[in-house]
Automatic annotation (TrEMBL):
Superkingdom of this protein's organism: Bacteria
Protein name, UniProt field: Nuclear transport factor 2 family protein
InterPro entries membership: NTF2-like_dom_sf, SnoaL-like
Signal sequence, start to end: none
Annotated organism of origin: Actinomadura rudentiformis
A Pfam short name: SnoaL_2
Every SnoaL-like domain range: 11-112
Length: 131
């Protein structure tokens, strides 16, 4: 898989997240794909579990958005350095630094997505102050 192939897959994947389209996101994963938001719980496996988890992300972070900091491509994977943005009703927009490692199969579907958050920023974004 070339860097151009990965870039095209990533573009579709980011568009699905930007649209907050859980079905489109899940369709870009293999049936046995794994997702883990490290520090927030155990990994989930399979499209139905991913569907529930990704829907929960959009509930947890109303007005979900993201700002790309860096996007690096490797052999069958990409690393996205990004800021998760969200806005609860009546509050200012907030951001949390995150890093994704996304593995892609030769058929172009995501096999694994690991997300790591800056937990001091996450705590502050939810009104708990910096750790």
């Amino acid at each position: 898989m070339t860097t151009q192939d990965l870039a095209a897959i990533a573009k579709r994947y980011f568009a699905a997240w930007e649209a907050r389209d859980v079905d489109a996101i899940v369709a870009l994963h293999t049936p046995d794909s794994q997702f883990q938001a490290h520090g927030r719980g155990a990994a989930v496996h399979g499209r139905e579990a991913l569907r529930r988890e990704f829907a929960h992300v959009f509930e947890l972070y109303p007005g979900f958005g993201f700002d790309e900091r860096r996007l690096l491509f490797g052999n069958g994977h990409w690393v996205l350095d990004w800021t998760l943005t969200f806005q609860r009703p009546g509050e200012d927009r907030r951001g949390v630094h995150a890093l994704d490692v996304v593995e892609v199969a030769s058929d172009g579907l995501v096999t694994r997505k690991d997300t790591f958050f800056d937990f001091a920023e996450l705590k502050a974004a939810f009104g708990g102050g910096a750790a």
